[in-house]
Design brief:
CATH topology of the largest domain in chain A: Rossmann fold
Radius of gyration of chain C: 19 Å
Low-confidence stretches of chain C: none
Shape of chain C: globular
Number of domains of chain C: 2
Largest interface: A-D, 58 and 61 residues
Helix content of chain A: 25-40%
CATH class of the largest domain in chain A: Alpha Beta
Number of helices of chain A: 11
Strand order of the largest sheet of chain C: 10-9-8-7-11-12-15
Oligomer: heterotetramer
Mean pLDDT of chain C: 92
Number of domains of chain A: 2
Largest sheet of chain C: 7 strands, mixed
Order of helices and strands of chain C: EEEEEHEEHEHEEHEHEEEHEH
Chains: A alpha/beta (251), B alpha+beta (341), C alpha/beta (279), D alpha+beta (429)
Helix content of chain C: 10-25%
Structural class of chain A: alpha/beta
CATH superfamily of the largest domain in chain C: Nucleotide-binding domain of ferredoxin-NADP reductase (FNR) module
Distance between the termini of chain A: 65 Å
Mean pLDDT of chain A: 88
Radius of gyration of chain A: 19 Å
Bound molecules: flavin-adenine dinucleotide, iron/sulfur cluster
Largest sheet of chain A: 5 strands, parallel
Number of strands of chain C: 15
Chain lengths: 251, 341, 279, 429
């Protein structure tokens, strides 16, 4: 019997599940290998028990928390899909603001009608077997992980930094062009796609296991970045991994 | 050995002719830097380049190299994948040629690695001598790697409007066999060569505080030096230094499976002793858990371990690791510290 | 062009097919696999290892646990810690695995003939050491005293329990065991392995000691042995490092300049005591 | 007519989470709404304090499917605020990307979300068995559209390298050549697509009150930029958007509704077609005529047909842009720097309609105020008005059929709820 797979989406842009839909070359083979029983964006049917549940999005309301708990109960393996789910991602930027004020700003006097809770990662709510990082996830990693899961094992996240993939691609390092890049402390797996296309890495895949943040911050500082700029960069996707900049910028 | 001359005007013709006989790999411009890549049109070739991002040796030892074709339902159906096609590496600087020679030694060492050697045995190297140092970090003068005595098939030296060409191997001579672009060198060419070499020698300078042959012992004495701690504090473990090194060859092996879950490939990927899990074993024990230890291992591997095993340093002085380190960790500075400079 | 010396151009990475004849759970985490290659005996020396693979999953080095005398069928004792080993635990008799090897130097048995032998092993260390112990039992006349010290974390984690029981009764060797944490029914020794040393009589001039165990064990065990007067050149050990190729290339197993997969895994203490990353 | 209730929790095959609630008692509509149940994401608040060049990157994350559109509108707003003039090639390249985005979005919508309705299938998955050639063609076309954007800016979802003032990396000539090759290869599949959708009968629906809004530009079918034009005849620059369209809170649903001169209006492919059909490229124009798409078209189901026409237009337009880019020297494309600061509005046509980004940026380049108006939000009131029409047209019909028709209607608008909920929240029913 083909393994049953569900794709679920919480607070997110749905770009990660779209990335799955964009697997044009592999789609038919993929459908041959798995049975997709829940994928609201693409299909009508809904299933109930899953071998693998891919969960996209951050958890930002009590209802979402409830729903993800229910999914957890109905699935053998739960994979958090994308930066929203694994890091809080862009959604977590709001946690840096006073949530009360955020609501007031958007809804004015009606703010009390719109409860919002602090953005949470999926693993803050339920146990997760694998975190597939990226904003959006990489097609390659999605396929690799899916195949590995089909073979009955949970893969191990890459121990390497984005720089390794950037070097493999033979890219001109952005630092060489005077642009700061978080590739050295960011977990690989995206193929260094941003540096390859001229953008600096902003760590959408989260940090490596043992990031040398102290050194990275000093480097950013030496490139003329202000405290605010360093903070923006380090929190764009990683608000939930706070970094103490005080020791580097006091004096 | 033959001595020939190639007019620069004939380079495009040569490129086209070579491209017809083999896969031609040479330096190409990438933004403001250079990379080795396939040359399909003469204008892609950029022979006047300081250095490339990745060394040409990586062409012989590609990332994600397939080793074994696998059938998941039958191990007995495993088949080797040993690939190679006739390739010409054109415009390889002396240090990089020696980098390739060092890989040759490692992969020929018992037991020999058929994957590398097969690719290598079909590769012709056309070296190109440098006229001046390519960066503030290279150590090729100190290391004696700015000129070549062997390890190449053809060697080109820039004489302004033409290249002086030495043939070194039969394969090299055969390659240019009847091509109309070469003529025998005349006494005037030789004189010009002499002058070019003099200028060249004058432009390279020593960057080390002591003789390079003191390095192995100086490093050994500095095994417990605080230098490593200082370097370790800055190191980001991003692996760039080893990825851009012409003589690094550490790898990992992993299986890739197709969606049919029946066919697969066992591949090797570049790996690096700078990765934090490189020396970790089951149970979590890590034999080189700290960046300081890993940086020390990198230098020791080049200057001590390889030296003791093969009789020469595995650092060819290309300067890439220093030039490309985001944390500004400079090999020459570290060497100078242990040499007491 | 590189001289194409007439060396073999065959890739060393292609595994040979081997058949699993029998699977026996030894503890909750270790299983014993009886394996046979298709066309040949393995031909291993004690303490050598093979690269075991499952297509699509990967490879890992595993020690050959059985005696060299019977290498038509050989034993692998595997703990399920990760990718390959967990997949292996799902295999059944009749399934096939890939084998490369044997690799490594193996134990220099010729150097210990006529000696008192003291085996010190902890945990999974018994897996490789068993090949040597069995070799010594089979060639009992070539050696003098045979002492085996075995430490496990818990009684239920002891490997080869039936064999240990037989060894305990066997007059050809002196087996002593200890556990870190006792469990119900355990009447034996409790404590770290070094506690066993004290009770053993050794003739320092005639004893060769062999240590195999988890990384933390070596330092203490060596110290103890040196204190008992055993010569550095007569202390052997098998060291574990991460390995990806087993061919002296991938770089993972290097401790300082030494490739453990080629020059090891068995080392003489006098050779590695100056190797800073060894112990 | 008996009473019935329709309660669709999470309509499938649309972008994002939406609920459909219809309650008819004795032939009288008691309740009818399209609810947006996506969690609020507070993008406007998140933009405050961030640098202007981060904004396209952050707002792309409002919606994966419209990521390129948000990036574009965000860039336009910042450029307007900061007085940045991108060079001509930059504009050409952006237009090429916008074409790519429109192609991919319309293809995805027509083949994957709409077609199953016509084949009576729950999704594209069973279609793979019954109509493999259709699905394979759909995949090929979608891949073509995705690949052309990916070749230029690395990714379709959250494109890399687009920023105010220019591109972080300028594509190589061979990459633009590759896009052209991909496009040319697709011609046959596009012809087959026209044939396929020609055979599909759009359900009838007439409601002549709809006002259509779309951007209009001199000399071209406006997608990248333009002036705000209405089918009622008015036209004005993007900066006037606040005077033109009004956000109101619908009492029955917390989804903000938007109106212009009338109670509701429509944006999107059909609106653009109605306003700009004279500027379509030839193939698109010919096919529109062939399909009898006589402007003004007021049947919202024909939004699907208009999308088909736009696919052809974007295809031809993209080819033309490739040629123009290839003719120009691949020179040094410097990123243009700000020359002032203040407020700026960016308006761009994304697949589902006009998207507005409006920023105030201070002298340090940081955003102090932001507002985004999303096409789906603009359409909501109109969708509900059309739903009422469907319910009364089908009075006496089977509730199941009505529900299916209503879902088809919602889908025809191709609503993108991820986008519309950047500021909305409603309670679960
Ligand atoms: C010479 C030699 C002989 C050996 N002999 C034996 C033997 O006889 N029997 C035996 O059982 N072992 C033996 N080993 C050890 C064995 O090779 C290792 O345990 C090997 O790593 C197992 O491979 P694996 O693919 O199962 O584990 P891997 O997947 O490579 O895992 C290795 C380590 O990574 C950790 N890990 C795995 N997945 C994850 C994850 N998702 N997240 C975090 N950590 C993770 C594991 O816990 C483990 O610590 C020997 C090793 C050597 C070098
Ligand atoms: S991780 Fe990024 S791409 Fe994925 S859903 Fe979240 S915002 Fe979208
Ligand atoms: S561009 Fe970024 S990822 Fe690439 S090498 Fe430089 S620092 Fe690393
Ligand atoms: S380069 Fe960095 S920001 Fe870009 S996808 Fe990779 S991890 Fe994310």
């Amino acid at each position: 019997m083909k393994p049953k797979v569900g794709v679920f989406s919480f607070t997110s842009c749905e770009g990660c599940q779209l990335t799955i839909l964009n697997l044009e070359d592999e789609m038919l083979d993929l459908l041959g290998a798995i049975e997709i029983v829940n994928f609201r964006e693409a299909i009508d049917e809904r299933g109930h028990e899953y071998d693998v549940a891919f969960v996209e999005g951050s958890i930002t309301t009590p209802e979402e928390a409830e729903e993800v708990r229910e999914i957890r109960e109905r699935t053998k393996i739960l994979v958090a899909l994308g930066a929203c789910a694994t890091l809080g991602g862009i959604n977590a930027i709001k946690n840096r603001h006073d949530l009360h004020q955020v609501r007031r700003k958007v809804y004015g006097d009606g703010a009390h009608h719109f409860p919002t809770e602090a953005t949470q990662r999926v693993r803050d709510v339920v146990p997760v077997e694998y975190e597939m990082h990226g904003c959006p996830i990489s097609k390659r990693e999605f396929l690799q992980v899916t195949k590995t899961l089909l073979l009955g094992r949970v893969p191990r996240p890459s121990p390497h930094a984005v720089c390794t993939e950037c070097k493999t691609a033979g890219n001109v390092c952005l630092f060489d062009k005077g642009i700061c890049c978080l590739g050295p402390i960011t977990r690989a797996g995206c193929g260094a796609i941003c540096p390859t296309y001229g953008g600096d890495c902003v760590a959408c895949r989260g940090l490596v296991d043992e990031p040398n943040l102290a050194s990275m911050i000093e480097i950013m500082k030496s490139k003329g970045m202000s405290r605010q700029e360093v903070e923006d960069r380090l929190t764009q996707f990683n608000t939930l991994e706070p970094v103490d900049l005080e020791p580097h910028f006091s004096s | 050995m033959k001595t020939l001359v190639l007019s620069k005007m004939d380079v495009p013709g040569l490129v086209e002719a070579l491209g017809e006989t083999a896969r031609l790999i040479g330096p190409r411009k990438k933004e403001h830097q250079f990379v080795f890549g396939q040359i399909t049109k003469p204008e892609q070739l950029a022979l006047e380049y300081p250095t490339t991002i990745l060394p040409p040796s990586r062409q012989l030892f590609p990332n994600d190299e397939p080793l074994v074709r696998l059938r998941l339902d039958d191990v007995a159906a495993s088949r080797e994948i040993v690939e190679g096609e006739k390739t010409i590496l054109l415009g390889v600087h002396p240090c990089d040629v020696q980098g390739i020679n060092i890989l040759d030694e490692v992969f020929s060492d018992s037991p020999p690695d058929a994957n590398y050697l097969t690719r290598r045995s079909q590769t012709i190297i056309i070296a190109l001598e440098c006229q001046a140092p390519c960066s503030p970090y290279n150590l090729c003068f100190d290391k004696g790697t700015y000129r070549l005595e062997w390890g190449y098939d053809l060697l080109m030296i820039d004489l302004g409007d033409r290249y002086f060409v030495f043939t070194r191997t039969g394969a090299g001579e055969e390659l240019i066999g009847d091509l109309p672009f070469f003529r025998a060198a005349t006494p005037a060419d030789r004189e010009a060569l002499g002058r070019a070499r003099e200028t060249q020698a004058g432009s390279f300078k020593t960057r080390l505080a002591g003789p390079v042959n003191r390095l192995p012992n100086a490093l050994k004495e500095a095994y417990d030096d605080l230098l490593w701690e200082a370097v370790g504090r800055r190191c980001l473990s991003c692996e760039t230094c080893t990825n851009v090194c012409p003589t690094c060859y550490c790898f990992d092996v992993a299986d890739e499976v197709e969606l049919d879950l029946v066919n697969g490939t066992r591949c090797r990927q570049w790996d690096s002793c700078q990765s934090c899990t490189f020396a970790e074993v089951a149970g979590g024990e890590n034999f080189r858990p700290r960046p300081s230890e890993r940086q020390r291992h990198r230098l020791f591997k080049k200057e001590v371990y390889q030296y003791e095993k093969y009789g020469r340093s595995a650092c060819v002085g290309c300067g890439r690791c220093s030039a490309q380190c985001v944390a500004s960790i400079r090999l020459n500075e570290m060497y100078n510290q242990v040499l007491g400079g | 062009m590189l001289d194409t010396a007439p060396i073999s151009r065959k890739s060393l990475f292609v595994p040979e097919a081997a058949r699993i004849l029998d699977v026996e759970p030894l503890t909750a985490r270790e299983k014993l696999f009886r394996v046979s290659l298709n066309d040949r005996p393995l031909g291993h020396r004690p303490c050598q290892f093979v690269e075991v693979s499952i297509a699509g999953i990967g490879e890992a080095p595993i020690s050959v646990s059985s005696s060299p005398a019977s290498s038509e069928i050989f034993d692998l004792c595997v703990r399920d810690v990760g990718t390959l080993t967990q997949a292996m635990h799902r295999l059944e008799p009749g399934d096939r695995i890939g084998i490369r090897g044997p690799y490594g130097n193996g134990f220099p048995v010729e150097k210990i003939i006529g000696k008192d032998l003291l085996f010190v092993c902890g945990g999974l260390g018994l897996a490789p050491l068993r090949s040597l112990i069995l070799h010594c039992i089979e060639n009992r006349a070539s050696f003098r005293r045979l002492t085996v010290l075995y430490g496990a974390k818990r009684p239920s984690e002891r490997l080869y329990r039936e064999e240990l029981a037989a060894w305990a009764k066997d007059e050809r060797l002196d087996l002593r065991e200890t556990v870190d944490v006792p469990e119900e029914g355990w009447t034996g020794n409790v404590g770290v392995i070094t506690t066993l040393f004290r009770a053993v009589e050794v003739d320092p001039l005639e004893t060769v000691a062999v240590i195999v165990g988890p990384p933390v064990m070596y330092k203490f065990a060596v110290l103890e042995l040196l204190q008992r007067g055993i010569m550095e050149s007569r202390i052997y050990m098998s060291l574990e490092r991460r390995m990806r190729c087993g061919l002296g290339k991938c770089g993972h197993c290097q401790m300082n300049g030494i490739y453990v997969c080629q020059e090891g895994p068995v080392f003489c203490y006098s050779d590695v005591k100056k190797v800073k990353e060894a112990l | 007519m008996k009473g019935y209730e329709i309660n669709v929790h999470h309509i499938t095959r649309i972008e994002g989470h939406g609920n459909l609630v219809v309650n008819v008692k004795d032939g009288h509509i008691e309740e009818l709404r399209l609810e947006i149940v996506e969690s609020p994401r507070f993008f406007e608040a998140m933009l405050e304090g961030r640098r202007y060049d981060e904004a396209p990157w952050i707002t792309a994350r409002i919606c994966g499917i419209c990521a390129l559109g948000h990036t574009t509108a965000s860039i336009l707003a910042a450029e307007d605020a900061l007085g940045i003039e991108p060079d001509e090639e930059t504009v050409l390249l952006r237009k090429l990307l916008v074409d790519g985005e429109t192609l991919q979005s319309h293809i995805l919508h027509l083949y994957f979300l709409v077609a199953p309705d016509f084949f009576n299938a729950g999704s594209v998955i069973p279609l793979a068995e019954t109509h493999p050639e259709v699905v394979k063609r759909a995949l090929r076309l979608k891949k073509m559209a995705n690949a052309s954007v990916e070749t230029l800016v690395g990714r379709k979802v959250h494109p890399i390298g687009m920023m105010p003032g220019g591109f972080r990396r300028w594509p190589l000539p061979e990459e633009i050549g590759e896009v052209k090759r991909l496009l040319l290869e697709a011609r046959e599949d596009l012809t087959a697509t026209v044939e396929l959708f020609r055979r599909l009968d759009m359900p009838p629906l007439r409601r002549d009150e709809t006002e259509y809004l779309a951007l209009r530009e001199d000399g071209e079918y406006a997608l990248y930029t333009g002036q705000i034009a209405s089918s009622l005849g008015t036209i004005s620059p993007p900066r006037t958007y606040r005077d033109r369209i009004h956000e109101t809170v619908a009492p029955h649903s917390s989804a903000k509704h938007v109106s212009a001169e009338r109670d509701s209006f429509a944006v999107g492919a059909l609106a653009r077609y109605n306003l700009n059909h004279d500027r379509l490229r030839p193939w698109a124009k010919a096919v529109a005529a062939e399909l009898g798409l006589e402007p003004p078209v007021t049947n919202p189901f024909h939004n699907n047909t208009a999308q088909l026409v736009e696919i052809l237009h974007c295809y031809e337009d993209a080819l033309e842009l490739c040629d123009q880019l290839l003719e120009r020297p691949n020179g040094d494309h410097r990123i243009q720097e700000p020359t002032r600061h203040g407020r700026g509005v960016g308006a761009s046509e994304v697949p589902r309609g006009t998207l507005y980004h409006d920023y105030r940026i201070d002298e340090s380049g940081r955003i102090t105020e932001a507002n985004c108006i999303i096409p789906t939000g603009q359409n909501l009131a109109n969708i509900e008005a059309d739903m009422r029409q469907v319910v009364s047209d089908m009075a006496g019909g089977e509730p199941n059929d009505i529900q299916q028709r209503l879902e088809m209607l919602v889908r025809a608008y191709d609503p993108c709820i991820s986008c519309s909920c950047h500021f909305l929240d409603v309670e679960f029913v």
